[in-house]
Amino acid sequence: MTDGRWIDLAEGVYSRRYPELDLTIGLVVGSSGCLVVDTRGDVGQGTELAAAVRELTSLPWTVVYTHAHFDHCFGTTPFLPCDVWAHEACVAELTTYGEQARGKRAASYRAEGKTTIADDLDRTTIELPGKVFADEAVLDLGGRRVVLRHVGKAHTDHDVLVHVPDAGVVFAGDVVENAPAGFSAESFGVDNDLGSWPGVLAAIEAMGAQTVVPGHGEPVDVAFVTDQREKLTELAELHARVRTKELTEEDAVARSRYPEDVTRAALGVPAAG
Q1: Which of 13, 95, 215, 229 has the most CB atoms in a 10 Å sphere around its CB?
Q2: pLDDT-based confidence at 2, cuts 50/70/90?
Q3: Is-contact 40 12, C-beta < 8 A?
Q4: Is 5-221 in CATH node 3.40.190.10?
Q5: pLDDT tens profile 176-186
Q6: What residues contact residue 93 under an 8 Å CB cut-off, 6+ apart?
Q7: b vs e for 132-152, b when ≥16 Cβ sit within 10 Å of the residue's Cβ?
Q8: 10 Å Cβ neighbour count for 123?
Q9: Would you say 147 and 170 are in contact if contact means Cβ atoms under 8 Å apart?
Q10: Per residue in 217-231, is it b (16+ CB within 10 Å) or e — as a string?
Q11: Of 139, 134, 203, which Cα lies nearest the Cα of 166?
């Protein structure tokens, strides 16, 4: 039994939702091929996803990674052989930190009692992308163009936006998140860039899409992205004022429109006490 569900976004454009980590992946179908946007977090999850894609199309597939975090790209092996696209910095990230992330996540799942996921991570092979780009790449799926764009640092230094112009859809990876507060604390880590993140959101707004698919949570509209950009801009300004000592860390936490745990994670401020 599967725990995933497809959402029909436009003709031949789908997202697939999973309760595990509230993950969202994508599928774009043309007349001669299809594009799978992210592959889930381990070889078992990737196997499920590959079978689910085959329920919708038998066309040859290409894979794109929105970024190198395990839950988005460790499930690739069942799709091979195929072209795997990513930003050029994704290769270094996976090469340097991939095995460490795999071991850490497997241990965490085992501690939570999720032994199936832990075992699947233990037997997962991290597949490096063989097709990389710096700023933009255009894929032809047969009668449908898909544009892969890297417009700046945000959640990572190698985020890829997947734009389907004829359908008005952008798959944004973790540049956009639809959590109860907009973003969750887990969105912010050592590899994000709070200062340039709002500019990447502005680039999504400028694409003119009607639907934006986050890496986690249900699909959203552009108004949601605008709201996230405005709040992140405020948060980045608070962060800058903390760095110049115009505000204390606690002042910044108090002034933020995000919940305390999200704000502290974004600012790199430890919990009080």
Answers
A1: 215
A2: low
A3: no
A4: no
A5: 999 999 999 99
A6: 67, 68, 156, 158, 191
A7: bbeeebebebeebebebbbbb
A8: 11
A9: no
A10: bebbebebbeebbeb
A11: 139
